[in-house]
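Example record for the data management plan.
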Amino acid sequence: MNANQKRQAFRALLAGKECVFPASVYDPLSARAAQEIGYECVFMAGSVASLVILGAPDLVVITLSELAEQARRIARATSLPFFLDADHGFGNALSVMRTVEELEAAGLSGLTIEDTALPEIFDQKQSGPHSLSESIGKMKAALAARTDPDFVIIGRSGAITATGLDDVLIRVGAYQDAGVDAIFLSGLKTREEVEACARACRVPLLLGAVPGALRDSAWLASLGVRAVITGHRPHSAGVRATYETLRDTRAGTLKPQPDDETPMMDRLSRKKEYKNLRQAYLSSQGVKS
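Corresponding structural encoding:
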């Protein structure tokens, strides 16, 4: 599918009646694995992007161009809808516009813009939200910047941990009035918080990692929750496996390669497809005058 078709598929998911659990991905192969397994869409977190691109913690020290390039690699490798965490949009409202332009051009299906005051400033005691006025300006700027109306702009807030539920409900209403396509909330811990936020939503609701006891897909779907992020274990598991393999190789204790490892890598890397392309365009049998 091309980028527009994937955006339409993402909008169909958000407009549906089910709650899905997007796969947390970080590179082309992880995205293809998610597609093969049968996920409906894929997502990359800002924290994962920082680890993959820089090997750094989630302190918003990566640049927009670095994020966009990694996103482009993932988007071109899968036919699944792909959205990501664009943090605070890498600056003010004008920077948000640039963020939307770059990530739309990279082939994504959508992104979240959050209202947290980032990056950390001098003597900052706690990471809280931007003022409501500035946050509304960012949401409006994001919407104005897109060129494909199917590209999904998601207003994100984690303000509940800093300013409480009442402030979050005000922000949910304001971001919807600004015109966002969906709302993404992180930090909700109880059924009552989820239900209160769902009642305030007139657009699809997405949630960051919620406690396992709240991951009742039927209950969430009935509230209008259309996606829940369930953490980012794939990347950490991959790093651990790499570390252990390097350690065991160094020690001479590496176990034999599993029988299914090579076929899996051949599938995910599209080895058969590239073999056919080589036959068609790099051999005298395929290319005829």
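Summary line stored alongside the record: The two ends are 32 Å apart (CA to CA).
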